[in-house]
Specification:
The complex is a heterodimer of chains A (331) and B (300). Chain A has two domains: 36 residues, no CATH class; 239 residues, MetI-like fold (Orthogonal Bundle). Chain A has 17 helices and no strands. Chain A is an all-alpha fold and 331 residues long. In chain A, 72% of the residues lie in helices and 0% in strands. By secondary structure, chain B is mostly helical. Chain B has one domain: MetI-like fold, CATH 1.10.3720.10. The two termini of chain B are 43 Å apart. Classes of the chains: A mainly alpha (331), B mainly alpha (300). The interface between A and B is large, with 104 and 104 residues.
Chain lengths: 331, 300
């Protein structure tokens, strides 16, 4: 971002043709006003987008005051009585909330440790394989599930893992007792982690492949001359070459540890028997809030707020760590 | 396989053990990805008898179209198809219009306050009001159980907006300025200069938005409780996941009348019908995203 700021500063100077700081304040303001008026049409076409952001992003942020209130429909957001930090205090006493935090973290970090490495490995494999057509076919196939919704994929998964489904029939053939990850507390998390990889591995690998292609080919040639094997080249050239991309993906993933983007997946696959290991913050709040006589809106909002704030802090922290480790950050 | 063209680049390369290993791993991965879809397709044509006979069902053991017939006789299916088509067409148009206009304006350096607007937009990627405040805003706007709620909350995608803005920034400024000096206004520049030279890029965006709108289910799940406004995904969800919908009653009636219907076949047919349009546009999207166009850096 720093780079761009500099650019604008230079632009300002050259545009006026003289140093702007000598121009009196009022004159300066008039100049800006003229610039705005000259570009009225740009503002006109930008306006709908800005209005959209105000209505659908910033107005809800204002609604966060609900987290400090006891919401009642009659009184509305503004009229509801203040309750201070009571909604936040409630969280500590809420056993189901603690359970949902634990599950969310388990899904997030488990996913993090499996998804990023598996996508990197796929990118390395696709890059190393020298059969072009095979590479293309494999990439086409493994990227496809990314474009389907979890409703479709959950439907397919439920069918495959049902008692009469493919997996259990196969296990049956080998005389192994059937499993139903959909209702088994032991297997459900793996079901979610591996299902997530099934959907996203191809798509996630594209960004690493793009990073690999931008590595200087001369390095490989030099390494070959020096007698380095292919595995050594991967270890000493390719992996260091994509380190900064991995860091950026890591920052993004850390930002969403509490909003792990798995709502769609879990919501469409879980059921009451596995709530203990499956219920995340998002599914818990969603399920409870819209039930009749369910969770108080103020309480739901407070939970959402904690999630947002933690997410923001995590992004900033991870970014800081990454930058101080000498890598390029995100912000 | 050995006859395939070998990627050039590194000198003195031969097919070695590593290549065989990679080939095996990648083909296995592709097979594992594909198998569930293949079985879904096969099962959509299954009959009760053939399904009972072949538990693995990896081949077209019967060609029974009862599953498809059952859906195509269901009014609710066509209702939800109409809703989804409306959301896809109108929603995608709106997405394109807003992103193109917004991204173009934000890409012009002469826009006073550009940095402020950009920061305001990027901030929403890092922080948000959350579900309930958003729900109350949308309820306040009278959008609950309104067709517009399936479109408006997703009218802008910050991610795509910024990628598009970065793209417009990369266009040669002299080209746009030349048109400007010729007396064209901004809208004319967009339609006569910026868009015509970025057709493939815009086509990719169009398809990405279209697939997202086609897959719409979250907003419908949250804001719609009138079955006449259900999207296809919610219809599918009811058929496959919740199993509590008019179709199952129909299926049961069917079962009584025509002897037997395989509910698995009905469910799998619904999945096939819902997936087919995505599969049809997929090759066109694939051509572009492999080059990394869509996940080019969001970073500034």
């Amino acid at each position: 971002m720093g780079e761009k700021k500099g650019e604008e500063r230079i632009e300002k100077k050259t545009e006026g043709g003289r140093n702007m700081s000598y121009v009196p304040n009022r004159e300066k303001r008039r100049k800006i006003w003229v610039r705005i008026r000259n570009n009225a049409q740009l503002y006109l076409i930008l306006a709908p987008v800005l209005i959209w952001y105000l209505v659908f992003c910033y107005a809800p942020m204002g609604g966060l005051i609900l987290a400090f209130k006891d919401f009642s429909y009659k009184a509305g957001v503004w009229g509801s009585p203040w309750v201070g930090m009571a909604n936040f205090a409630d969280m500590f006493a809420d056993r189901y909330f603690r359970r949902s935090v634990r599950n969310t973290l388990v899904f997030s970090f488990g996913g993090l440790f499996m998804e990023i490495p598996s996508a990197v490995l796929l990118a390395l494999a696709l890059n190393e394989i020298r059969l072009r057509r095979t590479k293309k076919v494999v990439q086409t196939v493994v990227t496809f599930p990314h474009f389907l919704s979890w409703v479709v994929l959950a439907g397919i998964m439920i069918n495959i893992f049902s008692s009469t489904g493919m997996v259990n029939q196969l296990l049956h053939l080998f005389g192994i007792a059937s499993v139903s990850p959909i209702t088994s507390q032991k297997a459900f998390r793996w079901f979610i982690w591996l299902g997530g990889i099934w959907k996203e591995i191809g798509w996630s690998s594209i960004i690493y492949l793009a990073a690999i292609t931008s590595i200087d080919q001369g390095l490989y040639e030099a390494a070959t001359v020096d007698g380095a094997g292919r595995l050594q080249q991967i270890w000493h050239i390719t992996l260091p070459g994509i380190r900064s991309t991995v860091c950026i993906m890591l920052i993004l993933a850390m930002g969403s540890v509490l909003t792990n983007g798995r709502f769609d997946q879990i919501y469409n696959l879980y059921s009451a028997p596995v709530y203990d290991v499956a219920d995340t913050i998002d599914t818990y709040v969603f399920r409870e809030t819209f039930n009749v006589g369910g969770m108080d809106y103020g309480y739901s909002t407070a939970i959402g707020m904690v999630k947002s704030v933690v997410g923001l802090v995590m992004v900033l922290l991870t970014n800081k760590v990454v930058v101080s480790a000498g890598e390029q950050g995100l912000l | 396989m050995a006859k395939e063209k070998i990627k050039k680049g590194r000198p003195a390369d031969r097919i070695g053990k590593l290549d065989i290993f990679l080939l095996a791993v990648l083909l296995l991965l592709a097979l594992l990805t594909l198998l569930p879809f293949w079985q879904t397709l096969m099962l959509s044509f299954s009959s009760v008898a053939s399904y009972a006979q072949h538990p693995l069902y990896l081949w077209l053991y019967s060609f029974d179209t009862t599953g498809y017939k059952t859906i195509f006789q269901d009014k609710a299916f066509f209702h939800s198809l109409a809703v989804t088509l409306f959301v896809t067409v109108v929603g995608t148009s709106m997405n394109m219009l807003l992103s193109v206009f917004g991204a173009y304006a934000l890409s012009r350096k002469k826009l006073v306050g550009r940095r402020f607007f950009l920061n305001m937009i990027v901030f929403t990627m890092l922080f948000g009001g959350g579900m309930i405040p958003t729900y109350l805003v949308i309820k306040g706007l009278g959008l609950v159980n309104n067709l517009a709620v399936l479109i408006l909350p997703n009218a802008v995608s910050t991610y795509y907006l910024i990628i598009m803005k970065n793209y417009f920034t990369s266009l040669p400024e002299s080209l746009l300025d030349a048109a400007y000096l010729d007396g064209a206004d901004e809208i004319a520049i967009i339609f006569r200069v910026a868009l015509p030279i970025s057709k493939p890029f815009m086509a990719t965006f169009f398809l990405f938005y279209a697939v997202e709108r086609w897959n719409e289910w979250y907003l419908c799940n949250l804001y719609i409780n009138r079955s006449s406004l259900y999207t296809l995904q919610i219809y599918l969800r009811n058929v496959v996941i919740s199993m509590s919908n008019t179709l199952n009653e129909m299926a049961r009636q069917y079962l009584e009348q025509a002897g037997m219907v395989n509910t698995t076949a009905v469910q799998m047919s619904t999945i096939v019908v819902t997936t087919l349009p995505v599969l049809c546009v997929y090759p066109f999207m694939q051509k572009h995203f492999v080059k990394g166009v869509m996940i080019g850096s969001v970073k500034e």
